[in-house]
Amino acid sequence: MAGLGVYSAEDLYRDLVNKTDFRLLDVRNEDDFIRFQVESPYSFEMSNVPYIDFIEDEKSTLGKIPKDKPIKIVCAKEGSAKYVGDILSANGFGDVSYLSGGIKTWGDLLVPVRINPVSDDYSLYQFIRPGKACLSYGIVNSGQMAVLDPSRNIDFYREFARSENATITQVLETHAHADHLSGGIEICSNSDVEMLVHKLDFPDSPFNYVTLDHLEKVTLCDFGPEMDVYHTPGHTEGSLTYLIDGKYLITGDTLFIISAGRPDLAGKVEEWVYDLYKTIIYQYAELPGDASVLPAHYVTWQETDENLCFSAPLEKLRENNPIFSLTSENEFAQFIFDNMRDTPEVYNDIKQVNRGLMNVTMEEADIMDLGKNECAASHYDSV
User: Fold this and answer.
1) Is the C-alpha dihedral spanning 110, 116, 121, 124 positive or negative?
2) Are the beta carbons of 226 and 187 closer than 8 angstroms?
């Protein structure tokens, strides 16, 4: 009997982008599979066969699974995947492995991609979170690192900083996130790290932060690139857009590659939709068209460039992103109203945690933070 193998989330991502031939077998229940599943920049074979099926009728369930290629099994916490893997190995399946730590490890995975030329004095990285369709960023210069919109996987950012011979000195949030738990507060628990935000999104937060204002200029990492701050409300009251070195637009949840941020997550769509309209149509018209838009989320892997980076010039978005074609207030608002959908119930609690107003256990955080974001202003299947 062939031994059961084990693979990591990093291994899975590498195999997906390298187009390795395998079958991904997800043995979670159907509801969990539909809610959140592995996605890839390239097509691959995946099937959902709940582990309970193996318990209830092992023989017929085995008949559903071809033996023509290696099988990688994923479950919630790894135990069910190991159970199914042992069954497959005992029944002649030759190359079977399971995801160590379960689907949570895929949800927490961060993949760094260098954005700017290596000839620059500073380094700009996009950190792709494929399990959540979230994007965060890092600026490294002269032994310091600034992190923008960090996820809760703070060990990754700290280890990445060490690998760059740097220490984290700044955390910048584009807004108070509702779709995922931020690691900003915990990173800034070290008094040597400052948090920079707009006060409208953190009015009653108990932690210390530096308030950023519209048209303010900030130097990142002491001697790093200069950043221009723009107050761009609409997704939230305190949403900010950062223009780094005149070349890179960190847009948060205000502007995505193929959509814009929802203005309804706080239940104030009637007020905020017109703020979003003014931000997109007027404020962004004043920003340099050749600047690269770097959002906090993506909808589909089709948005990447040739380097598997989620980035596009603002001028290209003005041509291709349908949100820019809605040039009247009424048309813009109607588009938003037509595409509104229910806000996930957990989003309010996530926002409270990110503002420092609610504490949760590690297990509660794991549950809250699982699943793809739903921050775009239009349905994913209709964009």
Assistant:
1) negative
2) no
Domain of residue 66, CATH code: 3.40.250.10
* Same structural domain, 45 and 191: no
The contacts of residue 278 (CB under 8 Å, 6+ apart) are: 234
Secondary structure letter of residue 282 according to DSSP: I
Residues 57 and 187 in one domain: no
- Compute the C-alpha angle 176/177/182, nearest 5°: 100
Structural domain for 47, as ranges: 5-106
The tens-digit pLDDT sequence of the chain (383 residues) is: 458 999 999 999 999 999 999 999 999 999 999 989 999 999 999 999 999 999 999 999 999 999 999 999 999 999 999 999 999 999 999 999 999 999 999 999 999 999 999 999 999 999 999 999 999 999 999 999 999 999 999 999 999 999 999 999 999 999 999 999 999 999 999 889 999 999 999 999 999 999 999 999 999 999 999 999 999 999 999 999 999 999 999 999 999 999 999 888 777 788 899 999 999 999 999 999 999 999 999 999 999 999 999 999 999 999 999 999 998 999 999 998 888 888 888 999 999 999 999 999 999 999 899 888 888 887 444 43
Considering the domain architecture, whether residues 121 and 77 belong to the same structural domain is answered as no
Which residues, 6 or more positions from 314, have their beta carbon under 8 angstroms from its beta carbon? 249, 284, 287, 288, 289, 290, 291, 292, 293
| Domain harbouring 368, CATH code | 3.60.15.10
Show which residues are catalytic.
75
Q: Which of 226, 231, 228, 276 is nearest to 256 (CA)?
A: 276
Residues 142, 128, single domain; the answer is yes
Amino acid at 46: M
The answer on 316 and 280 residing in a single domain is yes
- Split into its structural domains, the chain has a count of 2
> How many beta carbons lie within 10 A of that of residue 360, not counting itself?
16
